Amino acid sequence: MACCHHYATAEGGDAVFSVDVSAISFGPGALAEVGASARELGMRRAAVFTDPQIAELPFLQTVLASCRAAGVEVALFSESRVEPTDASFQAAAAFAQEAFSASGGVDGFISVGGGSVIDTAKAANLYATYPAEFLDYVNAPLGAGRPVPGALKPHIACPTTAGTGSECTGIAIFDLKAQGVKTGIAHRALRPARAVIDPTVMASLPQSVVAAAGFDVLSHALESFTAIPHSRRAAAASPGARPMSQGANPWSDVGCREALRLTGRYLQRAVADAGDIEARENMMFAATLAGIAFGNAGVHIPHGMSYSVAGLVRDFYPPGYPDDHPMCPHGMSVIVNAPAAFRFTASACPQRHIEGAELLGAEVRGATAEDAGEVIAARLTELMRATAMPNGVGGVGYGEADIDALAAGASAQQRLLGNAPCDVGEAELRDLYRAAMRYW
Ligand SMILES: [Fe+2]
Hints:
Elements: E1 23-26, H1 34-40, E2 45-49, H2 58-70, E3 73-77, H3 86-98, E4 108-113, H4 115-129, E5 155-159, E6 171-176, E7 181-186, E8 194-197, H5 207-226, H6 250-272, H7 277-297, H8 301-311, H9 330-335, H10 338-345, H11 350-359, H12 372-386, H13 403-411, H14 414-417, H15 426-435
Parallel strand pairs: 1-8, 2-3, 2-4, 4-5, 5-8
Antiparallel strand pairs: 6-7
Bound molecules: fe (ii) ion (FE2).
Residues 164, 216, 220, 303, 330, 334 line the site of fe (ii) ion (FE2).
């Protein structure tokens, strides 16, 4: 793509990009195919992961019935924690290690839930297959960043919210409790073998869940679209050494553009009306496209800042979520940073910020490169206000006194910050949190 200025290969840069994706089944009724797909992947004894809320919903029964019909035995773990922790990952791994131990052990994984559940199944698969000290596989510098030693058991991921895109990525995110930060495990071997995406699951979701998940989709697409171009990263020594977060590339751009267009068109409708099937199905498709894109490009500053916003939360209980512990849902913890972060990155690639705003439905006629930051920040703020998001980081309960701790947590997210189109250090992060405190 040397003809495209954005992807002109820098001195020592990587002229090649790699695309890895899960196999995908998408459409109403897809959950009824899970058992047959499991069998095709060679599963006979599957560990099925869900959470206590989803365990009460009919989707899980559909999946379990399809497994029974296909002759796949299941061991059900319904205690996956919403916003998982190192302890909850380890509990899930212990379950997977013990299930079917008298008859040869688990030979595959099925997850039915949001990103928390899917990530829990990824971690259980990893630690049950290749046992290790917990921090061994965790991203450096918090963990040792050890690569996954080989292939994992097949995992079928069935998302029940339209957001995380976790069904298409090799990333598992959790709270490292001792340090009060979110971090993750990232390796292409964690990517599920198949994603089964059934948009009918969207009909029962509360408004606040659709809104938070929708902003996660939006930010995956916009961050991947504005990430450092892959051709400015150092060339990889081998295909396997090329990072999953390889930066923006022409392939991820395709998914980002369509995900942004669909989000601009359908997010507000999907939040406002649970009966608007067209809007909710299109948000599910946008989530899939954005998930595939960010799984091969990588996100940057808004996600990097989100982990301490979620990890240090004190007394925030959003409507529509479990109220047994304070929490800031992932998409919410991302979007409260986004207007400030994109105002900051706009000068690195102004045209992409303007195009992103236009795809999201903003009027951009006459906008110049100098306007790019304001144009995108204004459209994001407009969408946040229309869908009852918190008014910035302050709306989640933080103040000036928290800025040092927030910035210290974010600066540990080097994998993400290195994917930004411009340099960002701890001093810039403090300024960004200050700018993100309040938008209206
Ligand atoms: Fe996300």
